[in-house]
Specification:
Elements: H1 2-5, E1 28-31, E2 41-53, E3 58-64, E4 69-73, E5 76-80, H2 84-96, E6 104-109, H3 114-119, E7 127-131, H4 135-144, H5 146-149, E8 157-160, H6 164-168, E9 175-181, H7 195-204, E10 205-214, H8 222-235, E11 238-245, E12 253-260, H9 285-290, H10 296-301
Parallel strand pairs: 6-7, 6-9, 7-8, 9-10
Antiparallel strand pairs: 1-2, 2-3, 3-4, 4-5, 10-12, 11-12
Helix pairs in contact: 7-8
């Protein structure tokens, strides 16, 4: 029952993390993490649907009062039914519509299936290879988040349960676009924020290939973002940063690191249109361009590593 299950609600398996239910009234989940000290996103919970530890992480699925189903990994919100589309659409369509003809895409992470759902809206796609380390994330997503994960069954999708870095080794010049849909740079996902991973991506991309990665929050992680832009500029001819708004991510905002093997790529202007664009809920060409307009404090902090 809910009363029994809530005793462990909000527990984070990371080092020095505290049980968060002690800090709020019973029936609430509070996201307390080391990457956003002193603040927390809290949601009222109707029901605990899953609460267990896989080989890699603590997995929870909740039915919330106002945001629908919610997937949480190691105490960190990954997606909710109400607002997931803003992240999925922007991380998928900004790079895809910056490439003239992407046919083969690699997705690293993304076990909830949301990025694959958006990629399949591009008629030019011939194959999507997805590497998800934790098979249990896919399993609970198929069970509780079918509006995202059911698309993983599509015949164009080659789903592999393995480390994305290992998969890329030996696969040179193979992909038109690589999308990294990762959790934050702690635990298993930490290697996806390091130069070596981006060097692997560069080698695995075809000529003119593009990379898009989860790029953290302007309000919380400017040092991390600047460092990533700095080393990406040394690996790729083009590196840029854009963002989207999403209520249930820390400070209501999340960014994307975008890189290209072609010096001619302009991420800020889509070079194609999407046939089903009118059916999207967040992305449009104006939002695409506006996503690269940063507040002045960010422009100053990124001087020398990103054009304003």
């Amino acid at each position: 029952s809910l009363s029994l299950s809530l005793s462990g609600l909000g527990w984070c398996w990371k080092k020095n993390c505290q049980p968060t239910m002690d800090k709020l009234k019973a029936g609430w989940f509070s996201e307390i993490g080391e990457m956003w000290p002193g603040q927390a996103m809290s949601l009222e919970i109707k029901e605990v649907l899953e609460d267990f530890r896989s080989e890699y992480q603590h997995i929870q699925v909740f039915d919330t009062k106002t945001y629908g189903k919610m997937l949480v990994l190691d105490g960190v919100i990954q997606c909710t039914e109400r607002d997931e589309f803003s992240y999925q659409e922007m991380l998928a369509h900004v790079p895809m519509l910056s490439h003239p003809d992407p046919k083969h895409v690699l997705v690293v992470g993304g076990g909830d299936g949301g990025i694959v759902r958006e990629l399949l809206k591009h008629e030019c796609i011939e194959k999507i290879t997805m590497c998800e380390l934790d098979e249990q994330v896919v399993a609970v997503s198929k069970k509780h988040l079918p509006f995202m994960a059911s698309h993983l069954e599509d015949e164009k999708v080659d789903l592999r349960f393995m480390d994305g870095c290992e998969f890329m080794d030996g696969r040179k010049n193979s992909f038109d676009v690589i999308i990294t849909d990762s959790s934050d740079p702690v635990g298993p996902a930490s290697t996806l924020f390091e130069p070596r991973f981006y060097e692997r991506c560069f080698a695995s991309l075809k000529s003119g290939g593009l990379l898009a990665s989860q790029g953290e929050c302007l309000w919380l992680h400017t040092d991390l973002i600047r460092n990533m832009l700095d080393f990406c500029q040394k690996i790729f001819p083009v590196a840029d940063y854009a963002y989207t708004t999403i209520p249930t991510y820390p400070s209501g905002q999340i960014g994307f690191i975008l890189c290209s093997k072609s010096a001619d790529t302009d991420f800020r202007k889509p070079c194609r249109t999407l046939a089903v664009q009118d059916n999207l809920r967040y992305y449009n060409p104006a939002v695409h361009t506006a996503a690269f307009v940063l507040p002045q404090f960010a422009n100053k902090l990124f001087e020398g590593v990103r054009k304003p």
